[in-house]
Amino acid sequence: MSEFFQLEEADGIRMPWNVIPGTREDALSCVVPVSAIYTPLKPIDKMTVVPYSPLRCRMCRSILNPFSSVDYNSKIWQCTFCFQRNQFPQHYSSISENNLPPELFPQYTTMEYISAAETGPVAPPVFMFVVDTCMIEEEIDYLKSALAQTAELLPDNSLVGFITFGTYVQVHELGFGLLPKSYVFKGTKEVNKEQILDQMCFFSGKQKPAMGVIAGTRDGLSSESISRFLVPASECEFVLNSVIEGLQKDPWHIPADQRASRCTGAALSVAASLLGVCVPGSGARIMAFIGGPSTEGPGSIVSKSLSEPIRSHKDLDKDSAPLYDKAVKFYDQIAKQLVHQGHVLDLFACAVDQVGVAEMKVAIEKTGGIVVLAESFGHSVFKDSLLRIFQSANNDLGLSFNGILEINCSKDVKIQGIIGPCTSLEKKSPLSADTVIGQGNTSAWKMCGLDKKTSLCFVYDISRKVGPDSIAQQTSNQLYFQYVTYYQHHEGQMRLRVTTISRQWSSGSASVQELVDGFDQEAAAAVVARLVSFKMETEADFDPIRWLDRALIRLCTKFGDYQKETPSSFSLSPRLSIFPQFMFNLRRSQFIQVFNNSPDETAYFRMMLERENVGNTVAMIQPSLISYSFQSEPMPVLLDVTAIAPDKILLLDSYFTVVIFHGMTIAQWRNAGYQDQEGHEVFAKLLKDPHVEADAIIKERFPVPRLVVCDQHGSQARFLLAKLNPSVTYNSDNAAASGGDVIFTDDVSFDVFMDHLQRSASTRAAGSTASTNLPSRLLVWSLDNATGVTSRDVVLDADTGVSVRLYLPKLQGKPSTKLPVLVFFHGGAFLVGSADDAAYHSYVNALAAAAGVLAVSVDYRLAPEHPLPAAYDDSWAALQWAASAQDGWIAEHGDLSRLFLAGDSAGANIVHDMLMRASSNDGQPRVEGAILLHPWFSGTTAVDGELPAASKVTGMLWSCACPAAPLRSAAPTTPG
Q: Residues 866, 867, 873, 877: is their CA dihedral positive or negative?
């Protein structure tokens, strides 16, 4: 994998497939999309920066690069992407094979251009502080201390503004140093630019222009009026410190049964409009410091009444958070305004309660802002992260502004979109794919804010088709990607960075091996994590576990080495062997499992996932674990509970948290003070080494991670145990090693996970000849962590699409245990519903676990497209299939002498029909028992007690399910 690190170091790019699938069909079968994670401003050793403008192709506007073909005699270069021949300008007249400009050097695939003529004067950065005052005095004191330190670190040439808010919004006039002066706005309404101009006296003593947009000095505003609110840091140090020192808790009374009146949305609206009036197009950041939920005005997330809880994930799923959609819509409008102005929204949310990060996520992401989430303004996560933004050191962020990123690709490659902190510029081009993922339908994006670690995930579409024509058109086995980023450097000048890379098409009979050799497992895991996070937020009823399982099985089926129907023979190339482990940990991660996390926390985790590079993303998915002991040097160990030992120290890096975990014996020795005694220097060093490594991790990461130091069996040991593979649990057969630990969970271990994966991949391949038309649904496998039930789909008829979903519970005894077989039919008046429905899937999954049965859930065809008796015929075929034990699970684990049927509503009707058919078929298959839940039958007349309205509805439903039958007459549906 070292070659992929080298590629990243050279150009800031990691791709899952470094050999590109040769056709669209090949790309789709590879499961993980052709994609790239690119860090536009990644620091690159010995990168060339030249003081002139780049040379562009006159046809496609791509930039001259080392892969361009050059005719030195004619002074012509050929574009890598559109093959247009371009004449070199006069100042390249001396070019030759021995006198190359830097952009043609083979090693300079990434370089930067600075043209003083084009960039103009250096623009100072602008920082607008927006400070919440609805907090307790202790929190305000913490925040005042942090802001005072920040004020000392501000660049001298930077412009500074200051806004405070509580019940009202106050804009402080820092340019008026004689006494404190501020302008006050109501917190119940958003404020536009016109109101800012009128109410803040921008045209005092002058005539306001009657028409047109007024923004900045070029539109009529005087620099004197702007400097009242945005002042150079070197000129307002005393006034700024006075305002910070004078911060007090919002004075308005708060009833005991109510929350504080906090107008966060109005304050951000004022800040955005003020910056839009004063410095449009300049690099500016709104830095919002918020200590609680917004309860007043636009963007509110909860009412003032304490009796109303703040929305949870459950509330969002049930659409019972009445303020959520309205708040998201408001912040989306703020995002559009800020993007248009070229400004950034940063959020520092420090509170035990939620503050509305989930609602503000859209504005932070679209503007490229940063977010820090902590429990208090006194916490080191906040304080150290804030200082890191302004400190000048090797690990500084290098905050940059106003980035515009464009992409060029070789023919047959199109861009579906970007997942990351940017906004589409809606620049439709031939490069834009029809399918859109993330910020798509364009070949150019805007990044109002970006830094050295901001990373974007590009998802591509291969448009190449199979056939002799496409092969004939192929002129080269190479394809090219070019990324062009125009941005305001943190030193103020405008720069243009160009990265051009080359990759190879796969071809021929060896294409599978070529793909495997070029597979980057870490990059693939990072891309899949971003995709599943994006789908969870944008697709209703999306099942991330099933989607991940389906993708993993398809990948292993295509690239695994195995004999059909022989799971023990399954193996993966070392190039792919770690990928299932990444997926196992991704399934258990905070990005997928939102239980016990608030919507704010989940939004924060996903925002960080979607802006970090591959290495940090992998740390989020699968944390690293280092073991320290007397017996050996510090060494990486498996992320497993068996790594815990009483005489070892473990260091866990999960990106958001760094944990130093002391084994029981180590903790006892430390508490006894042996490290301070003479002769125990080795023990003292053993205690110190993990802290040295933890400090190194913390210094290079932003936001600063939380440091947790804990002992075995201590309360904070949960930070480590929650991330470990539960190979030893309270109910597992294998016991913990002496002095080791167990995990109290019902989650499956990685060994069980891999066992199911091997069986599913080999079985899927074995059965693939049954239905080549539906490979994605042929056998879909999923493992429910909570119940231990494994489920998979089997297509019975490729032409009709009829399938079943099998549920195999966790086998408590021997693997050869035989279970009763339950065939279940879902309800829905023969018109709606399926075995895929979340409600039925959860119900049958829980039923299989509680009853200890092997369940077969039938997915039959529905009316009115397929009127009765199609549902009966499909269900009868499924019952006969189950009873024949054709499936390996039923043959190995099913006891068909204990065959039961069950169904609800129309499904119960089907159960009755199945019993009738079995009775007419010499009692075969033999059914031990049947369960009819709320059966739905129809007859020619209403029964006693049936309301006329209900009878009418039933008749209408029946006419849809069986339109050929007379209304209310349906012999097949009536028992007896």
A: positive
